[in-house]
Amino acid sequence: MTIHPSDLDSQPLTAASGATLVVQPYPVMSREYPATFRVDDAYKTTLPDLQNGPSSLIVGARQVIQHVGISNFRLPLRYRTRDAGEVVLETSVTGTVSLEAEKKGINMSRIMRSFYAHAERDFSFEVIERALEDYKRDLGSFDARIQMRFSFPVRVDSLRSGLSGWQYYDIALELVDANEMRKKIMHLDFVYSSTCPCSLELSEHARMTRGQLATPHSQRSVARISVEVKGGHCLWFEDLIEIARSGVPTETQVMVKREDEQAFAELNAANPIFVEDAARSFCAALQAEPRVGDFRIVASHQESLHSHDAVSVLTEGPTFAATSLDPRLFASLYHVG
């Protein structure tokens, strides 16, 4: 027997046990979107807000959460360049705050609203600080963090041909406000070629002792360089790129003619490096820069000889010190051309 909702008032149902079931009629509701409906302040006060509900609604342990927020909300932002220019870049933003043990949760949209309030400005660490202060205040949190990721273009000259092209650098700015301390951090993925010193010597040995043509192996390599920018100092994106290039000059090339390719082979032969050498070379360049405080270097040489990568991690100072490593850390260093 088919029973329609309109029949429920007059049609009792019988369970298998013989008992009569009382079924409430299905409420009649509009199924059309109310395009003309407008929300006023009085209506807003009636809306439920579970995230700001009482602590009795907490699920699980009543424990402090160090980071809760949103990741990868994207928007175009304007950045200043070292030569007094500006560039608009698509930016991926992650914003988090701490959550006290007795609070149910946060209103995630407030992070975005606070950030958008500053979105029309040229972004710098000072602007990020104001955005962080806004949403830290709005959400009543004691710690907060903003991270912004983007691909930054720089015009780079070829080695010998006089050509130039755009090199793109994956950069992230991070502002951390924790334990009543504020740190400004910049991350850079620097892509370079690494020629194996051992393979170079073995190749030369084959040439000299047996007249055998041999080639050393080299590979595309990536270093993720993270630096704390000292208070009161300005470290431009271009500055950090040049610091990295001064440590390891064999950066991969954009525009290449035959004379550039030959020059690159000579440059690699003049700068053969194991992954340990790369980490220490970047370290020396960073130690020589007075605007840089603590730092971390994560290097990955994605081997053309072996079926595995050669990796290293070097840190200076407590900011980046860590006993454990993210299991996917080195996998994230693969450079997609």
Kindly report the CATH topology of the largest domain: Urate Oxidase
Mean pLDDT: 90
Q: How much of the polypeptide forms β-strand, as a percent range?
A: 25-35%
> What is the correct CATH architecture of the largest domain?
Roll
Terminal CA distance: 65 Å
**Biggest sheet strand line-up:** 5-3-4-6-7-8-9-10-11
| Sheet/helix structural class | alpha+beta
- Radius of gyration, in angstroms, nearest whole number: 29 Å
CATH level 4 superfamily of the largest domain: Urate Oxidase
What is the count of distinct domains?
2
> What form results from the Cα inertia axes?
elongated
How many DSSP helices?
7
Describe the main β-sheet briefly: 9 strands, mixed
Helix content: 10-25%
Run of helices and strands: EEHEEHEHEEEHEHHHEE
Spans of 5+ residues with little confidence (pLDDT < 50)? none
- The first-level CATH class of the largest domain is given as Alpha Beta
The beta-strand count equals 11
Task: Please give a structural write-up.
The protein has 337 residues and is an alpha+beta fold. The chain has 2 domains: 30-142, Urate Oxidase; 150-337, Urate Oxidase. Helix content is 23%, strand content 32%. Strands 5-3-4-6-7-8-9-10-11 form a 9-stranded mixed beta sheet. A two-stranded antiparallel sheet has the order 1-2. The model has no long low-confidence stretch (mean pLDDT 90).
